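To close the section, here is one more complete example, presented without commentary so you can practise reading it yourself. The ligand is BJW.
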Amino acid sequence: MSGLEEARGLVARAERIAVLTGAGVSAESGIPTFRGPGGLWRNFRPEELATPEAFRADPRLVWEWYDWRRGLVAAARPNPAHEALARLEARRPSTVLVTQNVDGLHEAAGSRAVELHGSLWRLRCAGCGDVGPDRTVPLRPLPPRCACGGLRRPDVVWFGEALPEAELGRALDAARACDLMIVAGTSGLVQPAASLAGAAAARGVPVVEVNLEETPGSAGFAVRLRGRAGEILPQLLG
Ligand code: BJW
Ligand code: ZN
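Output:
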């Protein structure tokens, strides 16, 4: 039996599926992943830009990166991976889709994803904490300011910052309650998101990984499907 057939059997038998997605799921929409080829922007690594320290030191530089990414995403469309997951959710309402992505493409495909790392499309004032939607592309002037005079930042989770409590709670509940987990397009390097699949696997729950390559967690997963999420997920989920 091929890995794909085995995984399709797991999906057919599962009653509560949890899905964790990462940047690889949006790669086929033309959005660069963080690590690996194309993950660099002007020779900076994401770890050098996605931090509160980087924002304090040079808010304009950090905003130029986010403004560039907002432009890419605004011109992008959900791909067959997002669409297959949205169909799964519609067919099986017990499915919980958790994403590390901040691009909103799951939502654009019709999903109600739990956004663990926030959203590119909300701004938060670093001064007064006011949060609001903003889809302006390009955003000018950079960095944008709040009426209170404080700097606005993207409402995303940077390294060293806590994940939003409600979303993390829902993701942990899903990892504890699921009887199948699908992990797609994530390197599994960033915590605490990466630990969700390990937690499910430790309970004996089968984990199906969809990725172009091996990841540090691969060895503990029941089925490993190598290839593009936009090709594999539609075959896996029907
Ligand atoms: C395809 C494909 C195709 C490509 N088809 N596949 C425990 C141990 C060690 C460290 C820590 C720990 N706990 C916490 C930490 C520190 C840190 C961390 O994890 N560091 C590690 C790097 C070592 N974590 C944090 O700081 C987190 N905060 C925290 O824990 O706070 C604690 C706290 C509590 C209370 C008070 C205060 C603090 C926060 C992490 C935030 C991460 N933020 C970012 C940026 C978000 C905003 C933005 O987008 O700009 O999130 S970093 C970046 O990485 C982004 C992503 O969501 C995240 C994960 O990346 P992802 O999605 O996996 O992408 P890639 O590029 O890594 O991988 C793509 C994969 O796709 C690859 O495998 C490809 O092969 C594959 N692929 N094309 C299928 N077509
Ligand atoms: Zn403010």
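Once you have examined the tokens, check your reading against these statements. The CA atoms of residues 149 and 182 lie 44 Å apart. Residues 22-24, 27-28, 33-36, 39, 46, 50, 100, 102, 117, 156-162, 185-187, 189-192, 210-213, 215, 228-229 surround BJW (ligand 1) (CB under 6 Å).
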